[in-house]
Amino acid sequence: MTSHDAHFKRLLRTFFREFLEAFVPELARDLRPARLEFLDKELLHAAGRSARPRFVDLVAKVQFRREVGFVLVHIEHWSSRRSDARRRMFFYAARLMEERGLPVYAVLLTCYARPVRREPDRYVVEVRGLRVVEFRFRVVQLNRLRWRDYARKPNPAAAALMARMRIPLGDRVKVRLQILRLLVQLRLDRRKMDLIAGFVSAYLALSAREHVAFQREVDRIEDRQEKGKVMELITEWERKGRRAGRAEGRQEGRQEGWQEGRVQTLREDILDVLGARF
Length: 278
Prior knowledge:
By secondary structure, the chain is α/β, with parallel strands linked by helices. It has helices spanning 3-14, 16-23, 25-28, 85-100, 156-161, 172-186, 190-203, 208-219, 224-277; strands at 37-38, 43-44, 54-55, 58-63, 70-78, 104-110, 122-127, 130-136, 138-141. The chain is 51% helix and 16% strand. The chain has a five-stranded mixed sheet. It has a two-stranded antiparallel sheet with strand order 2-3. β7 (122-127) and β8 form a beta hairpin. α1 runs antiparallel to α7 and α6 (172-186) crosses α8. The protein is globular.
């Protein structure tokens, strides 16, 4: 699993309902939270012995009020555009329906910056004028969404994903500050707060100049209580960032040491062989 996939999977799993409320509201309506079940299998068995198994990002089994049956919600996240996106979404849904015997509502979430042209939302197969297949799915294409449309929504999923929306260069500092202000309002527990902090730090990192501008914006917050809580969050994020940086540095040091040891061992082996021959 790539770092992109891991970040997004944790976010979507933690804030599944909130993601639907912000981006797929027709699914969020009448959802029964007590009947929500994530399917950890995440594996689609491909047909044929030689075919490789396929992994999907997130599948949830849900039920709606006043409805008896269950529905599978399949959310697929892609960090780059793929020419076979429509075909993949169709075959993932078909395989899930075959394995689970339940209807599938598919959602494609994209976080790439380019291209900005609209991602197709259907897969169609026609044979001599007969439409054999018409499969549709929802697309949440972040680089086509305006961050200001979500800036005042008290929704943790939207707050985090604002970091990957369409942000003019001059608005990056404003977006980072607005995410912090939203988090102050939401009053999440520490685990969820850390999850969003890590997500925003990864996808909306500020330059040194932007950090100076960011601090100026924080100083302009008029509400003293809100300002104090925002500064507490900043301090906590910086502390965790330094700790993560030290851990990464230690890991890199161990990796470099291991590699150097391998090189030294290989060098000695080569010398031994040469010495034995000559």
